[in-house]
Design brief:
globular; Xanthine dehydrogenase YagT iron-sulfur-binding subunit; oxidoreductase activity, acting on the aldehyde or oxo group of donors; Beta-grasp_dom_sf; 34% helix; 2 domains; 2 iron, 2 sulfur cluster binding; 5 helices; 5 strands; metal ion binding; 5-stranded mixed sheet; 173 residues
Length: 173
């Protein structure tokens, strides 16, 4: 038995110690927004936030996350109350087939938090923060999330829009 805090709610699960966090979310809690794409950590469709940091849930075991705050796409917003990143993806058509979209949105949310904390990327001009979200910067930071439909220009536009909304309101995208 393990206890996981997912989207602010405690869940007690009886899982095999070999169960990935992704499989615990989808198969034991019916949180199917997090997708199983490659199951090898290469596509990012399974991205969730653990204590605010982006991870591939297919590469970690559920038992490793007792005491962590796990956020899935379902925890970011609801159909009647979307968060700024979800709104921006809708506004900019940041999806085509939609399979990668939950992972893209969760990853972009975590990425904007990293930028807000001043964490540089491989293409950041400075290691001292103050990073401008250029197309190159966004593409580098989102490189772990693949879109087979190639909706990248719209995804970048959505992230840029959401980053502006978050800066104005002071809330997390």
């Amino acid at each position: 038995m393990i206890n996981l805090t997912i989207n602010g709610t405690e869940h007690e699960l009886d899982v095999d110690v070999r169960t990935s966090l992704l499989d615990a979310l989808r198969d034991h809690l019916a949180l199917t927004g997090t997708k199983k794409g490659c199951d090898h950590g290469q596509c990012g469709a399974c991205t969730v936030l653990v204590d605010g940091r982006r991870i591939n849930s297919c590469l970690t075991l559920a038992v490793m996350h007792e005491g962590d705050a796990i956020t899935t796409i379902e925890g970011l917003g609801t159909p009647g109350n979307l968060n700024p990143m979800q709104e921006a993806f809708l506004h900019h058509d940041g999806f085509q087939c939609g399979y990668c979209t939950p992972g893209q949105i969760v990853s972009a949310t975590g990425m904007l938090d990293e930028v807000g904390k001043g964490w540089p990327s491989n293409v950041s001009a400075s290691l001292d923060g103050g990073t401008e979200l250029s197309d190159e910067e966004i593409s580098e930071r989102m490189s772990g999330n693949l879109c087979r439909c190639s909706a990248y220009p719209n995804i970048v536009d959505a992230i840029r829009t959401a980053s502006g909304k978050a800066a104005k309101t002071g809330e997390s995208a």
